[in-house]
Amino acid sequence: MSQQRIPGAPRTLEGDELNEAKKLLTTTFAGLPAGDGPTYQVGNVVSVTRQVVAGTKYKYVVDVSDGSVTEECTVTIWQQPWLQKNGNNVKIECKDVVKLNHTW
């Protein structure tokens, strides 16, 4: 019996979709304003899911470095392209502590 995809459920990305999601993560981190605290760097990407829910939500499990410490974190990027203002959000959460929550 084949597995059915449930509409709106998160889906693990592979191949070209995974590569595109990694590019999005790198571009998003590079575009964060310097005044929001440490400059974060992306390390090893463990996994990525994509979910369509009032926009597109990407959820990454990734090693993140702030220049002095590297830890495994969950990074969520939520895009709502139809909104002219505040249509993008990035949230970095490590060990249940929100390190960054930025909307633009």
Automatic annotation (TrEMBL):
CDD domains: CY. InterPro entries: Cystatin-like, Cystatin_dom, Cystatin_sf, Prot_inh_cystat_CS. Residues 5-95 form the Cystatin domain. GO terms for molecular function: cysteine-type endopeptidase inhibitor activity. Gene3D superfamilies: 3.10.450.10. Pfam families: Cystatin. Belongs to the cystatin family. This is Cystatin-like protein isoform X2. It comes from Drosophila kikkawai (Fruit fly). The gene is LOC108077632.
